[in-house]
Amino acid sequence: MKVVIMGLGYIGLPTAALIASKNIEVHGVDINNGIIEIINKGKIHITEPDLEGLVSYVVSNKYLKAYTEPAKADVFIIAVPTPFKNDNQPDISYIESAAKMLIPYLEKENLVILESTSPVGTTEILADIFYQARPELKENLYISYCPERVLPGKVIYELEHNDRVIGGINEKSTQKAYDFYSLFVKGELHKSEAKTAEMCKLVENSYRDVNIAFANELSLICDKAGIDVYKLINLANRHPRVKILKPGVGVGGHCIAVDPWFIVHDYKEESKIIRCARDVNNYKTQWVINKIKEEITLFIDKNGRKPSVACLGLTFKADIDDMRESPALNVTKTLIKEGHDVLPVEPNIRNHKDIKIYDYNEAVDKADIIVLLVGHKEFKKIDLNVNKIVFDFVGF
Ligand SMILES: NC(=O)c1ccc[n+]([C@@H]2O[C@H](COP(=O)([O-])OP(=O)(O)OC[C@H]3O[C@@H](n4cnc5c(N)ncnc54)[C@H](O)[C@@H]3O)[C@@H](O)[C@H]2O)c1
């Protein structure tokens, strides 16, 4: 068996490495030449525990090789980005262009699996692209959707052990994909159909977004009421059927901050709570910015000079290097743009294209105001009783 994987990012590369580790030949494809070079040296371009060892192993054993073009294979997996455009409209152009790249290589009895998080109906669009270009494959090219639900930082374990939902455009496609995932997934495989599987992924992330929005809304209410929201949540969670999440700076990442829009965009009238949760979580970030700015103004009034502000954490969650849609990055960039003296700290990246990254100790020493934006393990040593103004937005 040979597998082609389109897109070697946070999802495609670990998937490629896991499949290759089962002694299956994997032909990885990415349009980014730099990524290809790194992978073919047995190295990785993202931070993910245990991934480099696995990639190094499968590349040196010749089960994984990366290319810029696809090849003939038995199974094709598409794991390319699905961002949204400025008006929150889903952008499936990466999927469409990956599909077009595959057209010349497809043969009878091949299986194509879409893993990218996608608006409902995308797998059917994919099928139309293939069947229009290659009508002779209409009866025997199988197409399925199988979304990813891994946790960054635990991707290798979860890829293998999480349950998966598989939905084909017809029963045979579902079965073919089921058989394929059975080769390397130990979690339970749940057969469904394409639309339900697509919606399932969107619903999972919308559920998380709505629950975080509830916690974030509580943090605003409690701030006004003079109540410690973290203590309150701990107490409320003693109720046997209550499980409130932790508030933070907002919601980021390529999934939870993006996928709910795929539902809102297509079901505007019906998706009131999902839409509202997006607004609450975005508002929380703005609220954090305003809080810091109020403190800066007070500091200037009192001391007659601008304070320096250490912003601890830039990624969208703790202990990873991913800054996509990161509210912490948004807070930091906004303060810098508005001319404040900001000392950004991010232990998980070496440098950033437009932000100077400071060493933790240097920033905390120099700063007048310390703002905890992400709960990285490196920040747990912080002394919250230090004689400085400290904002703890992560609940340390
Ligand atoms: N990162 C996660 O934790 C996560 C979890 C679940 C689902 N997803 C979904 O998985 C999909 C991929 O996400 P990701 O985080 O791996 O993205 P990513 O940006 O890390 O990687 C995508 C890769 O695809 C490449 N690419 C773009 N167009 C291509 C093409 N035509 N052919 C080949 N390669 C191409 C890009 O260069 C990039 O390296 C998205 O739909 C995302 O929503 C991601």
Describe the protein:
By secondary structure, this protein is an alpha/beta fold. The termini are far apart. α8 (194-225) crosses α10. It has two domains: 2-195, 3-Layer(aba) Sandwich (Rossmann fold); 204-392, NAD(P)-binding Rossmann-like Domain (Rossmann fold), CATH 3.40.50. It has an eight-stranded mixed beta sheet with strand order 3-2-1-4-5-6-7-8, with helices on both faces. The protein has a four-stranded parallel beta sheet with strand order 10-9-11-12, with helices on both faces. β1, α1 and β2 (25-29) form a beta-alpha-beta unit. 42% of the residues lie in helices and 14% in strands. The mean pLDDT is 96. It binds nicotinamide-adenine-dinucleotide. The site of nicotinamide-adenine-dinucleotide (NAD) has 27 residues, from α4.
Task: Describe how the helices and strands are arranged.
Blueprint: E1 2-6, H1 12-20, E2 25-29, H2 33-40, H3 51-60, E3 64-67, E4 75-78, H4 93-102, E5 111-114, H5 122-133, E6 142-145, H6 155-161, E7 164-168, H7 171-182, E8 189-193, H8 194-225, H9 229-236, H10 259-266, H11 272-303, E9 308-312, H12 327-337, E10 341-345, H13 360-366, E11 369-372, E12 389-392
Helix pairs in contact: 1-3, 8-10, 8-11, 10-11, 11-12
Bound molecules: nicotinamide-adenine-dinucleotide.
Poorly predicted ranges: none
> What number of structural domains do the residues give?
2
What gyration radius follows from the Cα positions, in whole Å?
Answer: 23 Å
CATH superfamily of the largest domain, by name, is NAD(P)-binding Rossmann-like Domain
Distance N to C terminus: 49 Å
SSE string, helix = H, strand = E? Answer: EHEHHEEHEHEHEHEHHHHEHEHEE
What is the CATH third-level topology name of the largest domain? Rossmann fold
Count of DSSP-assigned helices: 13
Largest sheet: 8 strands, mixed
* Record field, number of beta strands: 12
